[in-house]
Design a protein that fits this description.
The chain is α+β, with helices and mostly antiparallel strands and 735 residues long. The relative contact order is 0.04.
C-alpha cells in the first residue's frame, strides 16, 4: 500500500500546532493593544481639548471642597494669583492674596452654598496675586457631589472690574455734580502718628475742621466700637505689605450719629527695610447706600405691611430648623393660620381696613410666641409660625404645641375695632382656622411640611372654621382618595353617574320664580360625592369643560320641555359656570351651539358666575360676558362678597342678578356688622339695576330681615331643599 501524501492525510505535528496558535494569539493581543492605544490617544486628545478650552476661557473657573481648598483651577485663576496648577491644588486663597478677610469671606461663602445646596450668584472682590489690585467679580457658585458623594462647589467668576470702575467713575462724576458724596481724604504720617484730613472728611463726620486733633487716636475714637477690631486688623495687614487697605465700616459723628463709610488706602512710602512711613487714603460716605440695601433686604425678607418674615425667610428658617431638630433630637412644629371670612372685610370695607386687621393679627400672633419662634405672613390672610424647640419627648411636645395653638386661637378671637369707609368705628369679631404638624428629623422636606400643615388647616375650615387641627397620617388617605376621584371623574359622564337636582327660588311673596341646577355625582363605590369635592378636581384636571357642557345640555333640554305648554313656562333656570370654563376661547360658541339645538326662550336661562371671574384676564372676560349676554340669556353674580369683587368692574359688567352668599345670611341675626354688609349689598345691587337674591335662608327671622332690606328673591332650606327633577315637577307643577 502506498503511503498517503501530505495533502491527503498528514496531520500537523505538535510543534506546528503550537506555533500557529501562538501566532494567532499574538495577532489578537497586538490588535487589542493597538485598539487600547488608539483609545488612549483619543482620550488624551479629548482631555487636552477640554483642558485647552477651560484654560483659555477668559473667566475664572475652579472647584473647592467643603474646607474652601482648591480641587481644580483653570489657567485664568492661576495667572490671576501668580501661581501654577500644581501649587494651587489643596490650598486656599490666603496663600496668594494675603488678605485674611477675603479668605474668611471665601471660606464662609463655600460653607453657605453647601448648607443651602442651591446655586447662587454673588458679587465679590479678590486681590490680584501679581499686581495686588482689588478686582471685582460676578460669581456663579454651583454645589454638587463628586463620584464618591463628596460635596464640592464649582465656581465661574466673571471679572467685572472694568464695569465697576466705570460705574464708580460715573458715580463720582454724578456725586460731584450734586456735591453730595465727595471723598474725605486722609494722610497718615506713621513716623509721628499724625493724620491730616481734607474738609470733606470732617464734614462726613460732622467735626469742625479747625477742631480736629489730627491724631491716630482721634481716628480710633471715631470708629464704631463693634467695628474697631476688624478695622485695625485690615490696617495692620496693609502696613505689613499684605494687601491695600479697603474696609467698609461704621464711624461715629460728633453728635453720636452713625455713618457708614468705605475706607481705603495704601502705604506709599517705606524705608530701605520695608518699614512703612506714610499711608494715604480716603473715606466715602455710603450711609444712603447702606440704608437702601437695608430697605431692599427688608422688602426681600420681610412683609412690608406687617413687618413679619415673608415666605422666603420662613422657608429658609424651616430648612435650618429641620437640620437643628435632627441634630439635637428635639421637636419642632409648623402652624398654618388662615383668617375666617377675611374677604368680607377686604371687599366690602376696603383694603385699608383689611390691612389694619392684618397688622393687628400680626401683633397678636407675635405676642403669643417665644423669641426662638418665627412668625411669617405667607400672603393674603395666611400666616405661618415656625415653633422651635419643643420638648425631646413627643407627648410633651404635642402638649406644648396644643397649648400654643389654643393661646393663638383665643388671641385671634378677641374683638377688633375697625373702621368702615366713613371712618365709623365698628366692633368686629373674627376667628381663624389653624393647622399644624410636628417634625423632629429630616424625613420630610420644608415644602412637604408646609403642604401638610396647609392640609390640616383646610381640615379645620371644613370642620366649621375657628378650629385647630394637627396633621395625622390618616389625612394622607384623603389625598389618595382625591387622586382616585380625579381618575373616576373622567368616566362618570359615560357611566351616567352624574345627575341634577333643583333648588327652588321664590319671590318676595313666596311665589316660585325659578330654580338653580345643582350637579350631583353618585359614585359606584363612595356613594354621593359633594360638588365641593369634585368640582375643584374637575377644574384641576381640565374636566370642567366636559362637565359644564353636560350640565348646560341637561338644563336646556329641561327648560325647552318646561316652555312647551307646561305650568313652568315662565320659570327661569340657573346654571353654575366655573371661571375655568369662561376662560376657554370656545365657551361662548359652545353655549350658542347648545342653545341652537333646543327650542327655548333664552331669557329664562341664567348663567351664574362667581367673583373669581374678577381674578382673570378682565378684558377677555368682559368681552365674553357681553357675547353671552347678546345670546339673550341672563347673567348672575354668585356668592357675592366672598371672592375678588371690584366695584370698578361690576358697574361695567352686564349682570342681571346679584346673589348674596349664604355665609352672610348665616350671621345675619346676631351680627350687626353683617346686617350692615348685607344691606349694603342689596342697595348696591339695586343701584346697579340688578335683582338681588339671598342664598342659604334657613330661619324665619333671616327671611324677615332680608325682606325688610328689599331682597327680591330667596333661596334656602326654609322654603325648600334641593330635589330631583321628577320630585320638583311633582311638587310644584300643579301649585
Amino acid at each position: 500500500m502506498a503511503a498517503p501524501s501530505d495533502a491527503e492525510g498528514r496531520h500537523p505535528s505538535h510543534s506546528e500546532v503550537s506555533t500557529e496558535t501562538l501566532a494567532s494569539d499574538d495577532d489578537s493581543l497586538h490588535a487589542r493593544l493597538q485598539a487600547m492605544s488608539s483609545r488612549l490617544e483619543a482620550l488624551q486628545a479629548e482631555n487636552h481639548l477640554l483642558r485647552t478650552l477651560v484654560d483659555t476661557h477668559p473667566d475664572i473657573l475652579f472647584i473647592k471642597d467643603a474646607k474652601g481648598l482648591f480641587r481644580f483651577a483653570n489657567r485664568t485663576l492661576t495667572d490671576f494669583y501668580g501661581t501654577t496648577l500644581e501649587d494651587i491644588i489643596g490650598r486656599d486663597d490666603s496663600h496668594y492674596t494675603g488678605n485674611t478677610e477675603q479668605s474668611r469671606f471665601f471660606r464662609r461663602s463655600v460653607e453657605q452654598v453647601l448648607s443651602k445646596f442651591e446655586c447662587e450668584q454673588v458679587f465679590e472682590d479678590a486681590t490680584d496675586g501679581t499686581t495686588g489690585e482689588i478686582n471685582h467679580f460676578r460669581s456663579i457658585k454651583q454645589p454638587f457631589h463628586d463620584i464618591h458623594g463628596k460635596p464640592l462647589v464649582a465656581v465661574l467668576a466673571h471679572n467685572i472690574t472694568a464695569e465697576v470702575r466705570e460705574h464708580e467713575r460715573k458715580s463720582r462724576h454724578i456725586d460731584h455734580i450734586y456735591d453730595t458724596s465727595l471723598e474725605g481724604f486722609w494722610d497718615w504720617n506713621i513716623t509721628n502718628s499724625s493724620v491730616t484730613h481734607n474738609r470733606r472728611w470732617s464734614e462726613i463726620l460732622n467735626v469742625p475742621h479747625d477742631e480736629l486733633h489730627n491724631s491716630l487716636e482721634e481716628f480710633a475714637s471715631l470708629l464704631h466700637p463693634e467695628d474697631t477690631p476688624e478695622v485695625m486688623v485690615a490696617i495692620q495687614d496693609c502696613l505689613e505689605g499684605g494687601t491695600p487697605y479697603y474696609h467698609r465700616h461704621r464711624m461715629l459723628t460728633r453728635d453720636g450719629n452713625v455713618v457708614w463709610v468705605i475706607d481705603k488706602g495704601d502705604v506709599i512710602e517705606r524705608d530701605h527695610d520695608g518699614t512703612p512711613l506714610r499711608m494715604i487714603g480716603s473715606i466715602t460716605d455710603i450711609t444712603r447706600i447702606v440704608e437702601s440695601e437695608a430697605l431692599l433686604h427688608q422688602h426681600s425678607r420681610f412683609d412690608p405691611l406687617t413687618k413679619l418674615a415673608n415666605r422666603a425667610t420662613l422657608i429658609d428658617a424651616l430648612q435650618q430648623a429641620i437640620i437643628i431638630t435632627d441634630a439635637r433630637d428635639t421637636h419642632g412644629a409648623l402652624i398654618f393660620i388662615d383668617l375666617d371670612h377675611f374677604k368680607k372685610i377686604n371687599d366690602l370695607l376696603g383694603h385699608t381696613t383689611g390691612d389694619h386687621l392684618l397688622i393687628e393679627v400680626a401683633h397678636r400672633l407675635t405676642g403669643q410666641v417665644r423669641e426662638t419662634d418665627l412668625v411669617a405672613r405667607f400672603g393674603g390672610d395666611e400666616f405661618v409660625i415656625l415653633v422651635q424647640p419643643l420638648s425631646h419627648d413627643p407627648q410633651a411636645a404635642c402638649r406644648e404645641l396644643d397649648e400654643l395653638m389654643e393661646r393663638l386661637q383665643q388671641a385671634l378671637n378677641q374683638p377688633y375695632t375697625l373702621s368702615d369707609p366713613q371712618s365709623q368705628p365698628l366692633d368686629h369679631h373674627s376667628s381663624a382656622s389653624l393647622g399644624s404638624i410636628m417634625f423632629h428629623d429630616r424625613a420630610l422636606s420644608a415644602e412637604e411640611l408646609i403642604r401638610r400643615a396647609d392640609i390640616a388647616m383646610y381640615r379645620a375650615k371644613e370642620a366649621g372654621r375657628n378650629q385647630t387641627v394637627r396633621f395625622d397620617p390618616s389625612m394622607r388617605v384623603e389625598l389618595e382618595r382625591a387622586v382616585q376621584l380625579e381618575n373616576d371623574l373622567r368616566r362618570a359622564i359615560e357611566h351616567e353617574e352624574l345627575y341634577m337636582e333643583l333648588q327652588p327660588q321664590f319671590d318676595r311673596g313666596l311665589k316660585l320664580v325659578g330654580a338653580e341646577c345643582l350637579l350631583r355625582w353618585r359614585h359606584p363605590r363612595f356613594g354621593n360625592i359633594s360638588p365641593y369635592e369634585f368640582i375643584p378636581l374637575a377644574e384641576k384636571s381640565q374636566l370642567i369643560d366636559s362637565l359644564g357642557d353636560w350640565v348646560l345640555e341637561q338644563a336646556c333640554r329641561l327648560l325647552a320641555g318646561w316652555q312647551n305648554g307646561t305650568g313652568f313656562a315662565e320659570l327661569y333656570l340657573s346654571v353654575n359656570v366655573s371661571v375655568k370654563q369662561l376662560e376657554s376661547p370656545h365657551y361662548v360658541s359652545n353655549v350658542a351651539r347648545t342653545l341652537g339645538q333646543h327650542t327655548l326662550s333664552p331669557e329664562y336661562l341664567q348663567l351664574e358666575l362667581t367673583e373669581n371671574v374678577f381674578a382673570t384676564d378682565m378684558p377677555a372676560t368682559v368681552a365674553r360676558m357681553h357675547e353671552l349676554r347678546s345670546l339673550g340669556l341672563r347673567l348672575s353674580l354668585d356668592d357675592f362678597g366672598t371672592g375678588f369683587s371690584s366695584l370698578t368692574y361690576i358697574k361695567h359688567l352686564p349682570f342681571d342678578e346679584l346673589k348674596v352668599d349664604r355665609s352672610f345670611v348665616n350671621d345675619l341675626e346676631n351680627d350687626e356688622m353683617n346686617r350692615r354688609m348685607v344691606n349694603f349689598m342689596v342697595q348696591l345691587g339695586h343701584e346697579l339695576g340688578m335683582c338681588v337674591v339671598a342664598e342659604g335662608v334657613e330661619t324665619s327671622r333671616q327671611r324677615e330681615l332680608l325682606l325688610e332690606m328689599g331682597c327680591d328673591a330667596l333661596q334656602g332650606y326654609l322654603m325648600d331643599k334641593p330635589m330631583g327633577i321628577d320630585d320638583f315637577t311633582a311638587r310644584y307643577l300643579d301649585t
